[in-house]
Amino acid sequence: MIETGSKIDTDFMLDIVKDGEEQTVAFDDLLERPTIVSVYMRNNTSGCDKQNKSLAQHSDWFDEQGYNIVAISKDTCGSHKNYAKKLDINYILASDPDYKFAEATDSIVEKNMFGNQYEAPSRSAYIIDTDGTVKAIIEKINTKDHASELKDVIENL
Asked: Tens digit of pLDDT for each residue in 63-74?
C-alpha cells in the first residue's frame, strides 16, 4: 500500500455519478480540493451500506472543512445512481471495475470468500491533496463509524 506523503499517479479515467448525472472524468479533475476517497466493495451490501450511510450523514461537515468525497467501487454508474437515491448520497460515486485507483495506491489485496480466493481493492480510505499527495490513510475502515474516524484524522492533520 502507498505510504502517507507519497504522490499517486492521477493519470487515469473513471466513470462517475455526480448530482445524478453520469460523467467520464480524469481522476486528477476530482482533486479540485483535498479529497477523501473511500473504497468499498459493492452497492447494497450490509457493510458497504453502513460505510456510505455514515459518510452521507456527515457529508456537509466534510464540505464545510473543504473536502470533497469520492466513494469508489466496481459497481456501474447505473447501479450508483439508484444507490445514491436509496441512501441520499450527495457526493461522487465512482465506478472502477478495472481497479485503477487500487493500482495507483497499491492497495489490491488477496481476499477469501466462501472458500474462493481472489484479488480486489482493500476497504480503505485516503485523504489526497490537490496535487495527488496522500495526506492520510485509513487501512481498515470501521464501516459503522466511518465518518467519525475520518473526522478524527482530518482534525489531526
From this structure: 999 999 999 999
